[in-house]
Structure formats: structure tokens, C-alpha cells
Design goal:
Layout: H1 7-35, H2 47-65, H3 73-89, E1 92-113, E2 116-118, E3 121-122, E4 134-141, E5 144-148, E6 154-160, E7 179-182, H4 187-196, E8 199-221, E9 228-234, H5 244-260, E10 269-275, H6 283-295, E11 301-307, E12 315-319, H7 323-335, E13 343-345, H8 354-358, E14 362-369, H9 372-375, H10 391-411
Length: 412
């Protein structure tokens, strides 16, 4: 029995006893808190829930927000939607914000051949015309069309849509001229105009936007090892397109993978990056790779899977020189009884997984084909809308990629 000679000693001793008694409990709660992870698996627990999740996200990103060209307010709204979804799934989520020279188009580009106006788009990030447009005639150089002045000097190039209609194209910096895209249905009109020297008027008012901010979204599920399996899928679209197939549905599939693995602790660290400015030369992926290089952690990325336009049909196009990736993805189609014919393209990705390949990671770029006549003409156009997406294609990809990731995690 302890006899206290004053009240202060009693209170001090009692407080110390309470702290000592509570200490193991505090330690236990700290450990439990550190291990407590978000768990959103219920959002993608079965095919019905996955289809509903896809539909909801397509509605928000493609229909309600719409086109998400890099450096626009809409693109940043899309990044915020992705960030919030990632926070439901994984314990570490951040915006990786960076600056580029953006690009703005004022009004709608126009191309008039004689008295006929044809559908056209100007190449994004490329130069525009003077405010009053360009006036000349169509010239043909082999298979290439251009707009020339009276002396024959080229003032602008004319591209044909690769899948039929006119599309938003990327700028070819080497030619230093405005580039207008028209549909293949207008070839006869171009040929006639070149033969008859029909007057042509082309107009596109554009301007660069220096120091324009845009953001990647990075979600991380820590593993037992710091070595990483990295997924990338771009969240931006071309100018003026909701981009359901290119690349919103595929990016949603990537987020679904984060939900599918939510609450687990894999062998590798899993990281999912929704990249910005892919349509401007993979600027977001390259910036993120530079950030990781500056941190000294780029070498931790052991594998990188780029998801890009998985809804052009059921047949995966597997672009990689990695034989292990090729074999595993083909075999998984058979094991999971996926009714599709995957195709191997024997080269390495030069787009969003490119900078990680350069740093030594194993990489693969996944695209798709099969519904070519129906889906490819929508590419880079305003009609690449949410309602065109077949949810069965994303369901198949989700099943394949979940098992693909598990096998990769277990193999290394």
C-alpha cells in the first residue's frame, strides 16, 4: 500500500498509472489506424455494378462535362472527378499539376470551296489563319492536297480523315502551316476544285496560351514492396470531342481496377495515373516521369500498362515487344473464355508508357479493334459520345486486366 503525503503526489501518480495502463491500447489503435485502408470493392463487385459504374462515370465526364481539352476548365473538372473516385479506392491520391503552352480556337473553323462549305477541323496546337482567312485555290501534289495562292505558294495543308469523316488532327510541326482536315466524302469536290482552280476560302482563328496549368491524377495502393505496377490512361480529349472511346471509357476501366483492388495489400505497389495532355504529345506522362526521376523513384516502376481506346471492338491490340506480356494476355483470353481475337503488334509504345520504357520498365500499350466500321469514324469527333460505348467491352477488359495484374504481382 502506497501512502501519499500530499494531493499533488497522488494526482501525479494516478495520471502516470492511467497513461501506462492506456499505452498498449493507444499503440494498438495506432497500428490499426495505419492499416485501415479505403475499400470500395462494392462499387465493382459484379458485372451489373460495373456496368452501372461505367454508365454513371461516362454520363458525368462525357455528357455533363463534355470535351476536356488540356488546360481548359473542363479538363480540370474532369481531373477533380477522377481524384474523388480514386480517394474512394486508395489511401494516397494527389494532383500532379504542371504547365504547358496551351492552345485556343476562337469560333468554328471554316473551309469553303466555291459556294460550298465543307465540314472541317483545324489541327490542334497548330497555327491558324489571319483574321480574314486565307484565299486561294486547291492544289494537288501526288496524294496531298493544299491551299495555294496565285503564285502557287502553299498557304495551308488539307488532310483527309483517316477513317472517313473529317477529324481533329495533331499538328505536324515540320510543315509550319495551318492544317485543315476534311472527310473522304469530299475527295471528289477537292479533285474538281484542283482541276478547275475553284476559289477556296479557309479560316481558323487560334492563339497560344502560355503557362497554362493542367493536371495528372495519381492514385497509389502501397504494396509490400516499393516496386511498382503502373497503369496509365489519358483523361484529356481532343478539342471539341467528348472522347467516350478516346479515352474516357478506358480511363474509367483503370479506375475500376483501383476499386477492384481497393482494401488489399499486394506484393507490388500499384499506381494508377490519369494523364493530361496526351493528345498534345503525351506531355502529362512525360512530366510525371520527370517528377519521378527528380524524386529518384522512377526506377521503381517495373511494369507500365497504357490503356487507350479499348472500345473500338472486342479484339485487343497488344503493342509490345515483351514476350511475357504477349503470351500472358493471349492466354488469359482463353482461360477467361473471352470471345475475341487478340492481335500482337510487335513494337513498343511511344505514347504514355514510352517514358517509362525509356527508364527500363516493361511496357505494353492496349488498344482495340473489331467494330471498325461503326466506331472508328467517331474517333476525334464530336460524336464520340457516351451512348456509343458497349459496356461488354469494358467488362471483358476489366476481367482480363484484374487477372493480368494479379499474375504480374505474383510472378516477380
Amino acid at each position: 500500500m502506497v501512502i501519499y503525503t500530499d494531493l499533488v503526489s497522488y494526482r501525479t501518480s494516478r495520471r502516470q498509472w492511467i497513461v501506462r495502463a492506456a499505452h498498449p491500447l493507444l499503440i494498438w489503435k495506432g497500428i490499426a489506424g495505419a492499416q485501415r485502408l479505403p475499400n470500395s470493392q462494392h462499387l465493382v463487385a459484379d458485372p451489373g455494378k460495373r456496368a452501372e459504374y461505367l454508365k454513371r462515370m461516362l454520363r458525368i465526364l462525357c455528357t455533363e462535362i463534355g470535351p476536356r481539352f488540356a488546360c481548359t476548365e473542363a479538363c480540370e473538372r474532369g481531373a477533380e472527378v477522377v481524384r474523388k473516385e480514386m480517394q474512394l479506392a486508395v489511401p494516397e491520391v494527389r494532383l500532379d499539376t504542371f504547365t504547358i503552352t496551351g492552345w485556343e480556337l476562337e469560333g468554328k473553323p471554316t473551309l469553303r470551296i466555291g459556294d460550298r462549305e465543307v465540314e472541317t477541323y483545324v489541327s490542334q496546337y497548330g497555327p491558324g489563319t489571319p483574321a480574314n482567312g486565307l484565299r486561294g485555290s486547291v492544289r494537288k501534289n501526288g496524294k496531298q492536297y493544299l491551299i495555294a495562292d496565285g503564285s502557287g505558294k502553299a498557304m495551308a495543308n488539307i488532310d483527309l480523315g483517316p477513317f472517313g469523316p473529317a477529324v481533329v488532327s495533331s499538328y505536324h510541326a515540320a510543315d509550319k502551316l495551318p492544317r485543315f482536315s476534311v472527310g473522304r466524302q469530299d475527295i471528289a469536290a477537292l479533285d474538281s476544285a484542283a482541276e478547275k482552280k475553284t476559289p477556296v476560302v479557309a479560316k481558323a482563328i487560334v492563339r497560344p496560351v502560355p503557362n497554362c496549368k493542367t493536371s495528372n491524377v495519381v492514385g497509389t495502393l502501397p504494396g509490400q514492396s516499393a516496386d511498382e505496377i503502373l497503369y496509365v490512361a489519358h483523361l484529356d480529349t481532343v478539342h471539341g470531342s467528348p472522347g467516350a472511346s478516346d479515352n474516357t471509357a478506358s480511363m474509367i476501366a483503370m479506375i475500376m481496377l483501383a476499386h477492384g483492388f481497393s482494401g488489399t495489400r499486394p506484393k507490388h505497389t500499384y499506381r494508377w495515373v490519369a494523364t493530361a495532355a496526351e493528345e498534345g504529345g503525351s506531355k502529362g506522362a512525360r512530366h510525371y516521369a520527370e517528377v519521378r526521376k527528380a524524386e529518384g523513384t522512377l526506377g521503381r516502376v517495373k511494369m507500365c500498362i497504357n490503356l487507350d481506346s479499348l472500345t473500338y471492338g472486342p479484339n485487343l491490340q497488344i503493342t509490345t515487344t515483351d514476350k511475357g506480356f504477349q503470351t500472358l494476355l493471349v492466354d488469359l483470353h482463353k482461360e477467361l473464355k473471352i470471345n475475341a481475337t487478340p492481335k500482337i503488334i510487335e513494337r513498343d509504345d511511344t505514347m504514355d508508357s514510352g517514358p517509362f520504357k525509356e527508364a527500363g520498365a516493361r511496357t505494353v500499350h492496349l488498344n482495340s479493334r473489331g467494330y471498325d466500321a461503326k466506331m472508328l469514324p467517331l474517333n476525334h469527333r464530336p460524336d464520340d459520345k457516351a451512348e456509343t460505348i458497349d459496356p461488354a467491352l469494358i467488362e471483358n477488359c476489366y476481367r482480363i486486366l484484374m487477372e493480368f495484374t494479379r499474375r504480374l504481382d505474383a510472378s516477380a
